[in-house]
Write a structure and sequence with these properties.
single chain; alpha/beta; Rossmann fold; SIR2/SIRT2 'Small Domain'; 2 domains; six-stranded parallel sheet; two-stranded antiparallel ribbon; 11 helices; 8 strands; 17% strand; binds 2'-O-acetyl adenosine-5-diphosphoribose
């Protein structure tokens, strides 16, 4: 599974950047968006994941995100999340960038995770941006309101919205500086996240895709490993331990 080129990259990389997508949480039981049974196969994103959808029917959007919040709270990180958390100690530097709005990387022990698309666990007022005080409470199906009267919205990036500037800047910088870039469990069709592997490749990093099926960018990568991230990432971690002398 591990090619000589990847072994070389694993043993010599000073900075590994990792971009994860919904596939990394699939083995935990969180639905992806576009694979079989994915959320966007059964739901129209225009009706659930745009500011216009929230304005038109806040109750529908809020209850759908409450359902997703319950799903995420009911599951646990899988071996792929844990392998990435442990790999951080084996590279001089590891930057973990995720498109996921679940907190499974953090629950597995990763710190400093760059959340490109926000977090399902951090709601805020849709009018004044004040943080929602009920984030830690059990998810409710009723729309919540801020003191200012504005409806509380999920703290995720919706279609048509900009990514958080600081997160995008940090992700682009890491992609441009790393010498090994792993793109894990993403269909690589949503921009600007999908630019990151290309930025890394153009800057000279060794780029590797880990996915159960080739993504839109598979042909642009130096190497693709086909398989579930919950299996492949632990193998990479074992190899890393062997190469970097940490049993
Ligand atoms: P997608 O659902 O588009 O893609 C998931 C990818 O994971 C696919 O390429 C699958 O082949 C792969 N996959 C599935 N199971 C896997 C496994 N066990 N191991 C490895 N790979 C697996 O999800 P994303 O690429 O994350 O944005 O989607 C990007 C963005 O589109 C999301 O962040 C979300 C969505 O609309 C917003 O909500 C803003």
């Amino acid at each position: 599974m591990i090619s000589p080129s990847l072994e070389h990259a694993l043993s010599s990389a000073r900075h590994c950047a990792v971009l994860t997508g919904a596939g990394v949480s699939a083995e935990s039981g969180v639905p992806t968006f576009r694979s079989a049974g994915g959320l966007w196969k059964n739901h129209n994103p225009q009706e659930l994941a745009t500011p216009e959808a929230f304005d038109a029917d806040p109750a529908l959007v809020w209850s759908w995100y409450s359902w997703r919040r319950r799903t995420v709270r009911d599951v646990n990180p899988n071996p792929g999340h844990y392998a990435l958390a442990e790999a951080a100690a084996l590279f001089p530097r590891l930057t973990l960038i995720t498109q996921n709005v679940d907190d499974l990387h953090q629950r597995a022990g990763s710190s400093g995770v760059i959340e490109l698309h926000g977090s399902i666990e951090r709601c805020r007022c849709s009018v004044c941006d004040a943080p929602y005080h009920g984030d830690n409470a059990p998810p409710t199906d009723d729309v919540q309101y801020c003191r200012c009267g504005g409806a509380i919205r999920p703290g995720v990036v919706w279609f048509g919205e900009s990514l958080p500037m600081a997160a995008l800047d940090a992700a682009q910088q890491a992609a441009g500086e790393c010498d090994l870039f792993l793109s894990v469990g993403t269909s690589a069709i949503v921009y600007p996240a999908a630019m990151l592997p290309m930025i890394a490749r153009q800057a000279g990093a060794y780029t590797v895709e880990i996915n159960t099926a080739p993504s839109a960018l598979a042909h642009e990568m130096d190497e693709c490993i086909t398989g579930p991230s919950g299996v492949v990432l632990p193998v990479l971690l074992e190899t890393l331990r062997r190469l970097r002398g940490s049993a």
